[in-house]
Amino acid sequence: MSTEHEDLERIHNHVYAAVDAGQLSDATRAFDVLLQHHPDNPFYHYMRGLALKYQMDWAGSLRDNLRAIELSEEFGQAQHWNAAIAATGLGQWATVRELWAACGIAIPEGDGPIDGDFGVAVVRLNPWSTGETVFMRRIDPVRARILNVPLPESGHRFGDIVLHDGAATGARFDGEREVHVFNELERVVPSDFQTFVVFVRAESREDLDALLRASAPGIGYAEDWSHSIRHYCLRCSYGAPHTHAQPADQDQAQPWQPERNLGIAAQSHLSVEKLLKDWVAGHPGRQLDAIETRECATPVREDGHAWWLSPDEADEDEAAPSDEDE
Which domains are assigned to the chain? Predict the structure, then answer.
């Protein structure tokens, strides 16, 4: 065996381990070397396109996935989906529509951005960081509009349109059925709404419900974070099967907590003030404690963690096809 062949075999083994470890920059450089020697290898193009996708390098990912499609002898869903994600990130709608058509996915007719109804699902925001999960309505196979009010620390807002991955990494119960959970890749259209953190006293659930149902100009959505925010362990976050020791009083009704923490999506501070002033005036047991707002940047993605995998996939390589020639 030649020294060059041994070196390439070593790089081949190293690069797949680097992807598994989330070392994407390192993996991309190694795939560059491999493709210099095997420029027509569809698996290497697909894998470099995969690594570039998780670095949000849409132009590079689209180039490699289209090349993998061109070189592959059989139709590959993974290459087409990743190419469609990258083309969506670039706003190349003609290419996006061609790729979805090749996958047999029906989309609304037109030439520009897709604006359909692909159902409700859950998106994991910043999956490389805190991974807050919120509900979303999918407007195409990989873009969706956020339906909840995310925490300010997420760097996201109610109404943001996000680009998400194509493979589900878990499930959530939406009140009626299980829905898929997808990892966000990037926010593509910021919302006009700001997030206001509101602290109130509501003497009864009816008082709180009156606030949550109230509407006013400039108000998008009000959410009772005291009820809706839950901190999950990693397996709970991904919907992976397991059990927890349950507290003895779990099934007992919890007493009502008057102090409530709310997230309100609104276009201005004045809109929130007007909403809460009217609500407080409606009943003597209602009290506004504070209205706060803060703007936070999205957490920076760093190498070293394969955040795109669910716990049950941790031992699997999303590379899927192996190179039979190596």
Answer: 3-102 (1.25.40.10), 120-191+299-310 (no CATH), 194-240+256-293 (3.30.70)
